[in-house]
Give the backbone structure.
Amino acid sequence: LFRTVPYRMCDPSFRHLLANPKPHEVAKLCMFLNFFERALETPLSGRIVIDRVVGVSLSEEEWLQSRQPLLALEAMAEKYVGFEEVTGLAHADFANMLIGGGVLRWGSLQEEIRFAICPELCLSMLVCPCMQKEE
């Protein structure tokens, strides 16, 4: 399937993580294994919606010149609650042109950590080709 898709895609295999002895890569692999162990004990619930946004109404130059205020931001007041535990929360990924960045290969920055903490996000790597400049 991945060789017939005309877009650049991530390699969704764990083979790179399995072959990499670096401590941060081993830690990512452990997070994935923990996720699967927990999923065997307690069936997963909920749903995952993948939504790609393309073609915003403003060009990059228009965004940079705009003086319109952004929408208000609402922050949670609850202390000690990680956003992984909040229901109905959306996760946005725009750090790397490849969805998930190097979570299954290399890399341990914000995007890779987010995908390792919430491995269900890796589903998007199976269906989303490389993001284009306007996404």
